[in-house]
Structure formats: structure tokens, C-alpha cells
Design a protein that fits this description.
Blueprint lengths: L2 H4 L1 H15 L7 H13 L6 H28 L10 E8 L4 E2 L4 E10 L2 E11 L9 E10 L10 H6 L6 E12 L2 H16 L6 H12 L7 H10 L9 H17 L4 H19 L3 H19 L5 H15 L7 H15 L1 H7 L7 H25 L1 E3 L2 H8 L3 H14 L4 H26 L5 E3 L5 H24 L1
Parallel strand pairs: 4-6
Antiparallel strand pairs: 1-3, 1-5, 2-3, 3-4, 5-6, 7-8
Length: about 475
């Protein structure tokens, strides 16, 4: 049986992903759409299944290329670029949690108007140190517009922002709140604010910051030193919302439906609503969208009576993300998320089989296999992107990962219990604080050990290629050995 016969849907989804990504190489427009339509129509004319498949695959490539080109044109459009160097009155919304540094407060937002003229463009807002507006605030401000910084010390702010559809920095001097944003964004703001309070009643300081980072993916409350320890230990992925979070949200809704005697169909619909609300609360991060798509498809597959395919679900997540922003192929979060999930699907089961002869508990064997697989496969991305390679990620994850379901489970239970009994919720949060302290302790312990991280401030191309080649060869060796034995 050929690959086309075994995996037709996977290959066609891959064609669409390839077309969306190709828009980053060259942009095409109306002609490509005409080609796609012609190929799609010729699909029915070919006498054999192979030729039909080729025609449909080519049509999907062309269609993805056309769509991706249009999306990139839209992301590159910027009325505010013509106003760089000017100052004036702006009305803007704060669309994400503000990040505070030693120099000021920065946050992604949207300028609704400049000097009374409607704009509607995403920007990077900069505020002086002190009090910054909360997520969702609608502000009136006096500000100046500047261009993002070009490459400096290995970081190109202009390119990084451009790939998010942002082309100017709005430096605010004075501002006042005049309301809140509305619509879907307003709903997301309210869910985010409620969840941030509900999971940690009575908690303060580092424990609260770690908990908010794990549940909402917001590491703004963590100190720079602790963030570095998480990176050095190979645990920084714990502060990025992943599929584990989405699974627990869906499972919690289904469990509640079962306890209340609600039919499974209604429970699955509730799980879909819970996943949607959680994705809105944490924001459109690549790992969140991918996990949300996977969770939603799992519920829809149950409702349809057909189990989902893991690899096909992963491809659909890529289509959703690249269909919105084809620039995401250059985003480290996108690359790390999909590389890690691919490692869990392809490499981790084989490593776990290899470990069955060792005297390890079952949960520890799984944790070691997953940590090793993800560490090997994501290493080239970490080396190329950040010039860093955590060397002790396996023991660090073996220590910290078992605590993650406890943290997430307690956090969501705390939020639910707080609706009916605030004192019980505070007790649960206090207990959860000790678990988050343990995770932070793992990061400090492993991240502070000598040789925990191989890092260079500005890796040269030969160094990067050598490091990437080494880990890719190691991954290939593991895979080939597993196939031969």
C-alpha cells in the first residue's frame, strides 16, 4: 500500500501547510488562485486516483500560497509608518498583560485613532516605569511614534515585530483610562482577569508569579534571575501553556458533567466551550492554538463517533496558525511547540520501550522518555535561536514534570471552588503554593549547577551548524536503531 493510499488526508493537509509557508518565499495573488481553481476542477477529469490526488494536492498548495500571500500583505500594511517621528493624541487598547523591565513597561496594543483619525493598527506600547494600564484598558494618551530598533546585539526588534504585524512603537508620555475594550477581546480580558485572581486567592510573591506563569503563560511577575534558572534547567516550557493545560480543562468539564449527571454529549459541548474560553484567556500563543485545536477536534471526533488521528490533528493546528499568520514559521514558540509534540509522538514511545528493562517506576520511565525526546529534538531550535542548550533537562523534567498535573488540577479546582466557598479556595491555593515552590526549587537547583547550560552570547554559523548536526544525528540514530531492532 502506497503512502497516498495510507495517508491521503495527512498528505493533503501537508500540501496546504506547504503552500501557506511558501508565501514567505514569494507572494502570488490572482493568477495562483486561478491555477488552484483549474487544478481543483481538473480533479474530476483525471481517470486514475493517483493523478486525481496530484491535482488536488497541487490545488491545495496553490490555494495555500494565494491565501498566505494575502495574509502577509495584510500584516505588512501600516498607516502609522507615515507618522514615524510625530507626536500627538492617541486612543489605544492594551491587548496583552504588560511586561515590566528595568527601563519601562511594554505591551502589545492597538491604536484606534491618531489625532481623531481612525486607524485600527497593532503597535508596541511603551510606558515609563511606574503604573501601567491593565490588559483590556482603553486609554487616551499623549505619545510619540518611532520606528522599532534594527538589529542590535543579535536581536532585530523591527523584524520581530513585523512578523506580528506590528511596524511602529508608540512611546506614551501621559495617559488616562477611558474605558475597556469590547467584543471578543473584552470577553478574553474578563476571563483572563478572573482566572488570574481565582486560581491564586491570598497568594503573593514568587509562588503566585510561578502559578500564573504555568496556568496563563504570563511570566511577567517572575524575576529575571528565576527566569534564567528555568531556561538553564530546560524547564522554561513549563511557563508556556501547552496541551497538558487544555486536556485538564476539558477533563475537568467532563468530570463535572458526570458528577452532575449531565449527558456525555452535553459534557463534550461544555468541554468545547471550556477550551474556547481558556484559549481566549491565555491569548493566541502557538502552543495554545495548537493544543486548543487538538482538544476541540478530540471532542468533535467523539461527538461524530470517530477517534482523531494525532498527526492529522497536529497538521490541522499548523493550518490554523499559518492561515492566520504565515510569518509564524519563523517564530521560536511555533517551532519549539511543533518540534516537541512531534518528538512526543515519534521518539518518546521508542525511548520508553528502551527503558523498560531498567528498574524505574512507570511514571518516571515515561517522564524520562518524554524529556529526552523533547530535549534532543528541540535542541537545534534552542541553539540556533538563543545560542543556549540546557544539558540537564532530563533530570530537571523528571523532577518537576510530575508536579505539573497537581499544580494545574489544584489551580482549576481552586477557581471553581472559589465561586461557592472562598475560604476553601484560599486553603487550596495555599497548598498549591507549596507545589509551585517545589517547581521553582527544581529550576533553581538544576539551573544553578555547573555545566547546566551550554551557552554562547552570539553563536557563529559553524558552531550552530555543528551543534544542530550533532543533535539531529543523535535523533536519527535513535530512530534507526529502534526500527532495526
Amino acid at each position: 500500500m502506497s503512502l497516498i493510499e495510507r495517508y491521503p488526508a495527512h498528505l493533503l493537509a501537508g500540501c496546504l501547510v506547504a503552500g501557506l509557508a511558501a508565501a514567505n518565499v514569494a507572494r502570488v495573488h490572482s493568477v495562483t488562485l486561478a491555477v488552484a481553481l483549474s487544478l481543483a476542477l481538473s480533479f474530476v477529469a483525471f481517470p486514475t486516483g493517483f493523478l486525481r490526488f496530484i491535482a488536488l494536492g497541487a490545488a491545495l498548495v496553490a490555494l495555500g500560497w494565494w491565501w498566505g500571500s494575502g495574509r502577509l500583505d495584510r500584516l505588512d500594511r501600516s498607516p502609522l509608518v507615515a507618522h514615524v517621528g510625530e507626536a500627538g493624541r492617541v486612543v489605544a487598547t492594551v491587548d496583552a498583560p504588560p511586561k515590566t523591565s528595568r527601563y519601562g513597561i511594554r505591551v502589545i496594543g492597538m491604536v484606534r485613532s491618531l489625532e481623531g483619525v481612525s486607524i485600527g493598527e497593532g503597535v508596541l506600547l511603551e510606558f515609563p516605569l511606574g503604573r501601567g494600564p491593565p490588559q483590556g484598558a482603553l486609554i487616551a494618551a499623549t505619545a510619540s511614534i518611532r520606528a522599532p530598533r534594527t538589529a542590535s546585539h543579535g536581536f532585530d526588534e523591527r523584524q520581530w515585530l513585523r512578523r506580528q504585524g506590528i511596524h511602529v512603537v508608540v512611546r506614551v508620555s501621559t495617559w488616562r483610562a477611558i474605558g475597556r475594550r469590547d467584543g471578543v477581546g473584552g470577553v478574553a480580558d474578563r476571563i483572563h482577569t478572573w482566572l488570574g485572581r481565582a486560581i491564586a486567592p491570598g497568594m503573593t510573591g514568587e509562588r503566585r508569579a510561578v502559578l500564573v506563569g504555568i496556568v496563563l503563560g504570563d511570566d511577567g511577575g517572575l524575576s529575571d534571575s528565576l527566569k534564567q534558572r528555568f531556561r538553564a534547567a530546560g524547564l522554561f516550557h513549563l511557563l508556556a501553556v501547552s496541551g497538558q493545560n487544555v486536556v485538564l480543562v476539558a477533563a475537568g468539564v467532563l468530570l463535572l458533567a458526570w458528577l452532575l449527571g449531565i449527558p456525555r454529549v452535553a459534557g463534550e459541548v461544555g468541554a468545547l466551550a471550556g477550551i474556547g474560553a481558556y484559549v481566549l484567556a491565555v491569548g493566541a500563543q502557538p502552543s495554545v492554538i495548537r493544543a486548543g485545536v487538538a482538544g476541540a477536534l478530540a471532542s468533535l471526533a467523539w461527538l461524530a463517533g470517530r477517534l482523531p488521528d494525532a498527526w492529522y490533528t497536529l497538521l490541522l493546528g499548523a493550518i490554523a496558525l499559518l492561515g492566520w499568520n504565515p510569518y509564524l514559521v519563523f517564530d521560536p514558540g511555533f517551532e519549539l511547540s511543533f518540534a516537541a509534540v512531534g518528538a512526543i509522538f515519534a521518539v518518546a514511545p521508542r525511548l520508553r520501550t528502551k527503558l523498560e528493562g531498567y528498574p524505574l517506576p512507570d511514571h518516571l520511565r515515561t517522564a524520562v522518555a518524554v524529556s529526552a525526546a523533547c530535549g534532543v529534538v528541540t535542541a537545534p531550535v534552542l541553539w540556533f535561536r538563543f545560542g543556549q542548550l540546557p544539558l540537564l533537562t532530563i533530570p530537571a523534567n523528571a523532577l518537576a514534570e510530575p508536579a505539573m498535573p497537581i499544580v494545574l488540577g489544584l489551580a482549576f479546582v481552586t477557581a471553581a471552588v472559589g465561586l461557592v466557598d472562598p475560604s476553601a479556595a484560599a486553603l487550596l491555593a495555599w497548598c498549591n503554593g507549596w507545589v509551585t515552590a517545589y517547581i521553582a526549587g527544581c529550576a533553581r537547583l538544576i539551573g544553578s549547577l555547573p555545566g547546566a547550560q551550554l551557552a554562547v552570547s552570539d553563536p557563529s554559523a559553524p558552531q550552530a551548524l555543528a551543534g544542530a548536526a550533532a543533535v539531529v544525528l543523535l535523533a536519527a540514530w535513535i530512530y534507526v536503531r529502534s526500527k532495526l531492532e
